[in-house]
Design brief:
73 residues, elongated, mainly alpha
Length: 73
C-alpha cells in the first residue's frame, strides 16, 4: 500500500543489448519459416520506422527477417 507520508522509490530496468549485438537463434530452430540471427539495432530502427508503423507488432520480426540478409549462420 502506498502512503503519502513515506517516500516511494521506483526502479526501472530495461534490457537493451549493446550496439552491434547479434541475436542468435540455435541452428536447429532455423528454417525458411523462422527468423535468422539479426542485428538488434537494425531491427530496433526498423520497428520504429514509417514502413513498420502499419505492421502488427507480432509480425514485425518476420517482416524484418524477410527484408534483411542473414547476419550469420
Amino acid at each position: 500500500m502506498i502512503r503519502e507520508d513515506k517516500d516511494r522509490f521506483s526502479i526501472v530496468a530495461f534490457v537493451f543489448p549493446n550496439k552491434g549485438t547479434i541475436i542468435k537463434t540455435p541452428k536447429e530452430l532455423i528454417d525458411e519459416q523462422h527468423p535468422r540471427d539479426f542485428d538488434f539495432m537494425k531491427f530496433f530502427f526498423f520497428a520504429f520506422s514509417n514502413p513498420a508503423r502499419h505492421i502488427d507488432s507480432g509480425q514485425l520480426l518476420y517482416d524484418f527477417a524477410a527484408l534483411s540478409p542473414p547476419v550469420s549462420n
